[in-house]
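Protein Record: Sequence and Backbone Structure Tokens
======================================================
Tokens: labelled as protein backbone structure tokens, with as many entries as the chain has residues.
Task: work out the structure tokens from the sequence, keeping to the layout shown below.
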Amino acid sequence: MYRQIKEEFRMERTLTQGNAFKNIVLFSIPFLLANLLQTLYGMADLFIVGQFNGAASLSGVSIGSQVMHMLTVMIIGLGMGTTVMIGRAVGLGSLKEQQKVIGNSIVLFVLAGLAATGLLLWQIDSIVAIMLTPVEAIEETRWYLMICFAGLPFIMAYNVISSIFRGLGDSKSPLVFVAVACVLNIMLDFLFIGVFGMRSAGAACGTVLSQACSVLFALIVIGRRKLIHIERKDLFLDRKTIRSIVKIGMPICLQDGLIQISFIIITIIANARGVEIAATVGVVEKVIGFFFLVPSSMLSSISAICAQCVGIGQHRRAFETLKYGCLIGLSFGLFFTILCQFLSGPIVSLFTHDPEVIRFGTQYLRAYVADCVFASISFGFGGYFTAYGYSMISFLHNVVSIVLVRVPGAYFTSKLFPDTLFPMGLTSPLGSLLSATICVSVYFVMRRKGVFGTAENKRSDSFAFEHQ
């Protein structure tokens, strides 16, 4: 029976066979759709609030959702350690190692979720103050964050479940789970905001309740179909396994956190200019988040596929995965950039009827959207480096980009160009251009040193877990 289960794991979830381009497309499509649905139910909060309430409520939800987005991407970043370690175990065909990583990941995320919830609720007023929230939106922002912070364990639970499945090579199950959350969130938003008039609190309640239902649904499906196989002993913390997960996932977690902090600093700069600018930045960030679905999906897909390739020693295939992932991301980035030069105004007007928000949003989006092009390169290489255990590279190039370009650029352009947001929107693409340049340069240096392997189709158990 053990041997049969082991073969089923390898046959159904292996990502190291077949055409490399077809493989990344087929794996990334469910991932992309899952991210799309997750973004849609985040955008639904802004859209529905904008239809029923004014700029204060819209600003409160946009500021609060930006804080929550930062926390979510940090959780996903930490979960990348789980995805990579499980992927390597799948490549090696080690069911025992898979079980140990899954069990330790569950315990790690539960403990982290409980600790984070208590800390964030305790510091909620400080967070609202740090964001320089406009006076009109303070109460709306506080309610939104308080409810979402209370529901953080459900967000943690969903993301650890998704990380486990993607590490196993299954990108379809997380799509089903997030689809449940998306449908419920939209329905609950209309109920709480449109019918009950709960404004930002209604948006937060819809988000938390839909996420909780999604997690419950996922656990029911996992239990009935026995999709994940672990034993009680796998739930006991293993220092070596936890260290491996954290070593890979923590730099990505910190990297994503720093990127979001830079966005929050930009939001703070915008908030100081009034409620209309604050609402504008919040709306455009949501739109950009939608456009970034492709490079984000490529990053995670490249990590998952390359991790299995690393486990089995298929270094050439890992590079092909990186190449195709970057090309796909670049193609979509160019398409979105061209599209927004003509349709930025209509896109922003979907979220608000305020003429000032639409005017500033059109300027900001036309410049900001170019970030999708350069980020496709840095995201792709980030996934590749992470699969090999060098996630610290992604952390470092993002720190350089934030410190040298994103934050100072946003500050000085806001001072030098107070009547337009176009120059401020250019700072993010310039930051990503610097990151992409660093990634490509580091790759060629490391490749010349033979860091990314030379033997093709040669299993290397010691290499697969040398970063533990």
